[in-house]
Fold this sequence. Notes:
Chain A is α+β, with helices and mostly antiparallel strands. Chain A contains ten helices and 22 strands.
Amino acid sequence: xxxxxxxxxxxxxxxxxxxxxxxxxxxxxxxxxxxxxxxxxxxxxxxxxxxxxxxxxxxxxxxxxxxxxxxxxxxxxxxxxxxxxxxxxxxxxxxxxxxxxxxxxxxxxxxxxxxxxxxxxxxxxxxxxxxxxxxxxxxxxxxxxxxxxxxxxxxxxxxxxxxxxxxxxxxxxxxxxxxxxxxxxxxxxxxxxxxxxxxxxxxxxxxxxxxxxxxxxxxxxxxxxxxxxxxxxxxxxxxxxxxxxxxxxxxxxxxxxxxxxxxxxxxxxxxxxxxxxxxxxxxxxxxxxxxxxxxxxxxxxxxxxxxxxxxxxxxxxxxxxxxxxxxxxxxxxxxxxxxxxxxxxxxxxxxxxxxxxxxxxxxxxxxxxxxxxxxxxxxxxxxxxxxxxxxxxxxxxxxxxxxxxxxxxxxxxxxxxxxxxxxxxxxxxxxxxxxxxxxxxxxxxxxxxxxxxxxxxxxxx
Amino acid sequence: xxxxxxxxxxxxxxxxxxxxxxxxxxxxxxxxxxxxxxxxxxxxxxxxxxxxxxxxxxxxxxxxxxxxxxxxxxxxxxxxxxxxxxxxxxxxxxxxxxxxxxxxxxxxxxxxxxxxxxxxxxxxxxxxxxxxxxxxxxxxxxxxxxxxxxxxxxxxxxxxxxxxxxxxxxxxxxxxxxxxxxxxxxxxxxxxxxxxxxxxxxxxxxxxxxxxxxxxxxxxxxxxxxxxxxxxxxxxxxxxxxxxxxxxxxxxxxxxxxxxxxxxxxxxxxxxxxxxxxxxxxxxxxxxxxxxxxxxxxxxxxxxxxxxxxxxxxxxxxxxxxxxxxxxxxxxxxxxxxxxxxxxxxxxxxxxxxxxxxxxxxxxxxxxxxxxxxxxxxxxxxxxxxxxxxxxxxxxxxxxxxxxxxxxxxxxxxxxxxxxxxxxxxxxxxxxxxxxxxxxxxxxxxxxxxxxxxxxxxxxxxx
Lengths: 461, 463
């Protein structure tokens, strides 16, 4: 990556207000076991670089390449300058990016069990064990898919302002999907583990036990009814809460979305949620899949409080949106890899713990549902959402009376979060992912919550 | 910054010849070069201009019959390419067997027209910015309440090549263009949800005005939505809704590997009735200028047109070489290196040379009917028109219970009002049986060319 450092000395740099250069090496190991067979075992090596330039206080240009020879990286910078100038005639408003601390840092993730200490055979055993855990539950387990992924990143950030940041980290994940089948009835269940760190991920939860628990759930659901439809008082477990928080509250708190489309726009300093809600984004949450010390503009990813006791206190910003809003950037400019431009992204979004145990939350429900697990979903920038849950239980007078299979919940998250009347005291750090134009892995630190929500069940009332 | 394509082809061929000398069953190398020019739109403005160049090669190697490994690299030096091949071999050696694994034989692929437009390959950034800006002006000029929120004009041009030790050795050049615009509307302090439109093609003539006006019209139609009562009624799923949730369910049930794994609801149901007699579905990679058309698939199998559902009866499945081998049937050429849909694992790994192929439709095509979508509306006594739904289906079971992000209440053959916060709920496999009409206005999506479908007796949930 030396050629990038030389590039900063080029005269072309003077044509821009700011030049940001990134270089990256990424190695991915993936191993997927489907129904006992390793059907994908891959070793992926990628490297490349990008140049991003800001010209005349108005316009960005970005160019990336995987061919990192000296001539090519020069061409990459030249290209980004040409691109940046292409929309100047359309842009009239000038922006002054706020200065940020200039740093020279080397950062690497704390890792107890490094990936390189494991042989390919030992790596293959991880999804195979998860498969066996599920398979051992017998004949109703129709389809099992277990995938192990390790991502090792080595990233360099250089800017014409003088920052030089080298960050390396490892992320390890395990995904398990099980489909239980009886006659013509299919019931899916899934679970993921993932963190920034090494193979110590499996010290607490073994792949076998995880596979077993997912299969147990899928089989249990074969005997469950379809859930009812309508509006309910619900207790939402941390896994589903993580999806809701990220999609339906987190996205509208991203400055680029907030400024364009209702949601939380223009409500800074106002009560926008239940007073029990304190929500933050924190790149420094150890172990979170969105663990970053600095973002891809060289801004530190410290904890930013977004909503405090229900009051909107900040959006998540990159340097451009921060300049538009006249605030400091919050370290939320992240690119999935060298090949794409940074966008405003969450790192590890979290809800601060409340006072309720899960039992207390359930006891307080006269007639309602306990919703567990997630099949993901999506939300509009105005906070309208639809998410799948994996299973549910009917609560009557504070007790579980009946189990249901999964379906979807829907509504407007801002409205739903106003109805939160209890927040759990146990916060769980969940792995998460997001596909806002480009992919990202992120963390979510979430408790259970209790609120009112619409359930789109397929059964009767 | 351009990669010399013949350099990459030669280097890959050399490495394959070196690997062949080792004791192995199959070698396959898939290699690509792509350059992408992109303009993004945010909040009524052109936001950024980007250019991404990428090239790489992925190897699948089988040893001792069917122990398979995959590795790839984007370092375009012969030594690094050889190292990727050797990594694939090392993995293959520690992998258990994939029963019946095979690769296609080399058979000359057909010629497919309209896959490459030199104007896309040579697109100037100024033209791209101009097109994006015209779309913004058209959307916001349609009505002053419309805001062009986000968008993307993407011009992609490149090559893909594949070699295997069964005689496959093909290359193809192609271009693709994607124009997307999302908008919302503001009236009396209330903001509509996002309304978007997508134009996909192979040529540079994009019609940005049509894109902008369509979005503008969609946004204005969504103003003043009203809540729904729950009822059981007729639903028109417009081509957008069909191309997403219903497409996913259909695809999952038709995948050859899901059939032999037993996870497809349609396993063992060939020639049985699985849908309304009015439904005919084919997979067609040969359509001239089709967005997912190609002369050979991601394993080098020559492209076909494959009947999947004929007048409601299951006529075939989607196969790659291995699934066709297992089920002892013809390979339909559906090994894809660029499968669609959301898959977390694939999102992490990436597409193209970075991944082993998986079974996915090329252009999944529903045969159009005779009436326009507007004519279908006139036939409904009480129901809704669903322009788009949010949320994922449970693809295996076919359960869809999802929010109506853009829908209209219909009574006595007329649209009465846009719908606020409703849902539809049911099992898509039941809906396929209750299709009463198919419209004649099909639209191209990334892996589908589909019209609107009128489905009877669907559960609609109000608030």
